[in-house]
Automatic annotation (TrEMBL):
Signal peptide per UniProt: none
Annotated protein name in UniProt: Peptide chain release factor 3
GO terms under biological process: regulation of translational termination
InterPro entries in UniProt: EF-G-like_DII, EFG_III/V, G_TR_CS, P-loop_NTPase, PrfC, RF3_C, RF3_dom_3_sf, RF3_GTP-bd
Domain Tr-type G: 10-279
Classification via Pfam families: EF-G_D2, GTP_EFTU, RF3_C
Function: Increases the formation of ribosomal termination complexes and stimulates activities of RF-1 and RF-2. It binds guanine nucleotides and has strong preference for UGA stop codons. It may interact directly with the ribosome. The stimulation of RF-1 and RF-2 is significantly reduced by GTP and GDP, but not by GMP.
Family per record: Belongs to the TRAFAC class translation factor GTPase superfamily. Classic translation factor GTPase family. PrfC subfamily.
Domain of life: Bacteria
UniProt: GTP binding residues: 19-26, 87-91, 141-144
PROSITE patterns in the record: G_TR_1 (PS00301), G_TR_2 (PS51722)
Location in the cell: Cytoplasm
């Protein structure tokens, strides 16, 4: 293998920090960037939360779009490694965007609030990671607050997230009396100090939990409890198995307090030593290895029209193999044509800069005039289509109605471009009835606002009763044809013209499944 390629791959760690809103994702991201020297002051990373404020939600959404471009990818160097953090929107209405971003990472760090435990968004995000066998490290945050007991939290993680856990650090008390954590991996004692600006941690090397040195640093009653806890943990858990972690079957757990920069360095360094560098990825045709010399990658996100005066679109492109070069022609496998990029950009914390080359694991911004869609693959000529960027069933469906017949063209173009950007999914029925599906109500406000401001088109949405979209296939062409005919009022077509069945209830879906045993119903668009 090309030595340079090998070196660049082994240097890279591409991951996402995910959490239920308010668990501490932004705070932790910021601390990581401080360690990497990518930012100098706390507060530099803007939270990408949409806050309900007195000002219009639309303005918040617009601000949010600006912020999320700046923080979509944060790249920095630390300890000789190139780290790429991909940001995910916190708001649940933007869950689709988060799911897609998760298709572009090699591992994740999941932040859990010790007071709240596993929350709804945590469970959903984790189910996407499980589907893809993404390696997960869990950081239990806010140990400076009185929260749930650590053992209780571990049980909750295992039960609700359906993953085996293995604590690698253990807290000594919590809340007011929080003393620090004992690192079970390196046998070091990390003493807690409430201070958000420091970078160093006070580490004391201990031989074992029995070491009398321990009493010098923490009160006796806490030592006793710690020894009991460790005995219990070592009795219950197998030693940490890195292979199981990398297969996405075991999640190591750390405890700390992001705001106090406590346990963060420990987390970052363990992450760097165990998290995988870019690895292989499945395309429809074959598995592609990061170490292959020919460049390949896919688009997982598109940002459009940030400046309404310029129809600019940035496609976020994840490199899967080989070396990406500026100005080189690449093969667009969906359009079957060659295109090149004269100003690809890297994202470095708050700045964008034009780059000459990039490597597997990197995410670069490609300026696009409309030829790239989410899920598109670029190669050096091979016919490949990367998998793993499916559409998931929306939860809310509405009929799109045109309110200005003079602007039909603008509306059509606008809705097509916004759905290509992944804001929502568009389904077409009976020729031209357009049904928009989303995960959250907020999306409809976003679409309406953007259609008006960016495309000059006025629209309204009428709620529909559907609850779920199911992609349908069958080995039996006749049965499929009959099903599509008989259920034609419930059949729509996605952007690739695949038939989709809209169900109004679980019961309706069950009945259809029973009535049509030859038909397969898929909950995501990727089923081949
Ligand atoms: P996000 O929504 O997950 O990005 O959460 P943020 O990073 O914005 O944090 C949410 C709130 O929790 C903020 O007010 C933080 O200051 C606070 N926070 C973050 N980490 C800690 C911590 O370790 N201890 C305490 N007490 N508060 C924290």
């Amino acid at each position: 293998m090309n030595a340079e390629l090998k070196r660049e791959i082994s240097k890279r760690r591409t991951f996402a920090i995910i959490s239920h809103p308010d668990a501490g994702k932004t705070t932790l991201t910021e601390k990581f960037l401080l360690f990497g020297g990518a930012i100098q002051t706390a507060g530099a990373v803007k939270s990408n939360k949409i806050r309900k404020t007195a000002t219009s939600d639309f303005m918040e959404i617009e601000k949010q779009r600006g912020i999320s471009v700046a923080t979509s990818v944060m790249g920095f160097e630390y300890a000789g490694k190139r780290i790429n953090i991909l940001d995910t929107p916190g708001h649940k209405d933007f869950a689709e965007d988060t799911y897609r971003t998760l298709t572009a990472v090699d591992s994740v760090i999941l932040v859990v609030d010790c007071v709240k435990g596993v929350e709804e968004q945590t469970e959903k995000l984790m189910s996407v990671c499980r589907m893809r066998h993404t390696p997960v490290i869990i950081f239990i945050n806010k140990m400076d607050r009185e929260g749930k007991a650590p053992i209780e939290l571990l049980d909750e993680l295992e039960e609700k997230l359906q993953i085996n856990t293995r604590p690698l650090s253990w807290p000594i008390s919590q809340g007011q009396t929080f003393k620090g954590v004992y690192n079970l991996y390196t046998s070091a004692l990390n003493l807690f100090e409430a201070n958000s600006s420091r970078i160093s941690e006070t580490l004391v090397k201990i031989q074992s939990p029995q070491d009398p040195e321990l009493e010098k640093w923490i009160p006796e009653s806490f030592c006793k409890k710690l020894r009991e806890d460790i005995a219990l943990i070592e009795g219950v858990y197998e030693p940490f198995n890195e292979e199981l972690y990398r297969d996405g079957l075991l999640a190591p757990v750390f405890f700390g307090s992001a705001i106090n920069n406590f346990g963060v360095k420990e987390l970052l360094e363990t992450f760097l030593s165990i998290a995988p560098c870019p690895y292989e990825r499945d395309a429809r045709e074959r598995t592609v290895f990061a170490s292959e010399e020919a460049m390949s990658g896919f688009v997982f996100k598109i940002h459009a029209n940030l400046d309404p005066n310029h129809r600019d679109r940035t496609a976020f492109f994840k490199i899967c193999s080989g070396r990406f070069e500026r100005n080189k022609f690449y093969y667009h496998t969906r359009l079957k044509k060659k295109i090149r990029f004269s100003s690809p950009t890297h994202f470095m914390a708050n700045e964008k800069s034009i780059i000459d080359d990039a490597w597997p694991g990197d995410v670069i911004g490609l300026y696009d005039n409309g030829s790239l869609k989410i899920g598109d693959t670029l190669t050096e000529g091979e016919e490949l289509q990367f998998r793993g960027i499916p559409s998931f069933s929306p939860e809310i469906f509405k009929l799109l109605e045109n309110h200005d017949p003079m602007k039909t063209k603008q509306l059509d173009k606008g809705i097509r471009q916004l759905t290509e950007e992944g804001v929502a999914q568009l389904f077409v029925q009976h020729g031209n009835r357009k049904i928009v599906g989303t995960v959250g109500e907020l999306q409809f406000d976003v679409i309406k606002f953007r259609l008006e401001h960016e495309y000059g088109a006025l629209c309204a949405f009428t709620p529909l009763r559907y609850k779920k979209a199911l992609w349908v296939t069958s080995d039996n062409k006749e049965s499929l044809g009959e099903f599509l005919r008989r259920k034609s009022n419930l059949i729509v077509f996605d952007r690739e013209d695949h038939p989709v069945f809209l169900a109004e209830s679980e019961w309706m879906l069950k009945t259809a499944q029973e009535d049509y045993p030859d038909i397969e119903f898929h909950t995501t668009s990727e089923f081949k």
